[in-house]
Amino acid sequence: MSGTDSFMEKMKKAGRNIVDTGAKTMLKTDIVFLEREIKSRKQQFGVEVYELMEQLEVDTGMSTEEKEAKIRLAFDRARKDIAVVQAKIECKEEEMTVLNESKQNEATPIPNAGYQQGPNHVITTGHPGDVTDSEYGMTK
Distance of CA 126 to CAs 22, 117, 129, 131, Å? Predict the structure, then answer.
C-alpha cells in the first residue's frame, strides 16, 4: 500500500508541475502581450503629439499655454493608459513569483517525513487533560 501512496503522490506532483508550468507559460505570454500594448500606446502617443503640434503650429490664434495644455492632456492620457497596463504586468509577475515560491516550498524536504511510528505508539487527537480512564484501559 505504501508503494501505491508513493506512486499516487508522484503522479499528483507531476500533474501539479504540468499545471504550474502551463500557468507560468500563460502568464509570460500575457506579459509579452501587455508589454506590446504599452509599446503600441507609446507609438500612438507619438503620432497624437506630432499631429497636435503640427496643428498647433498652424493655429496662431492659441496662446502658448493653451498649446502646452493640449500636449500635456495627451501625455496625461497616455501615462494613465500605460500605468493601467503596467499594473496588470506587475500582477502577472506577482502571480509567477507565487507559483515559483510554492514550487520551491514543495521541493523543500520536511524533517522526519519518512519517519514511521512503531506499533506501540499511541496517538491522541485531543488535549491530554481530556483523556478518560477508559482510554487508558482503566474501568471502574
Answer: 42, 19, 8, 7
Angle between helix 64-107 and helix 2-58 axes, rounded to 10 deg: 170
Rounded mean pLDDT, 33-40: 97
| Contact partners, residue 12, CB within 8 Å, separation at least 6 | none
* Cβ neighbour number for residue 103 with a 10 Å cutoff: 14
Largest Cα span, the chain? 108
Residues 6 or more apart whose Cβ sits within 8 Å of residue 130: none
Q: Per residue in 58-94, pLDDT tens? A: 877 888 888 899 999 999 999 999 999 999 999 999 9
Helices of type H across the chain: 2-58, 64-107
Amino acid identity, position 29: T
Q: Which three cell numbers stand for residue 127?
A: 488535549
**In contact, 28 and 97? CB cutoff 8 Å:** no
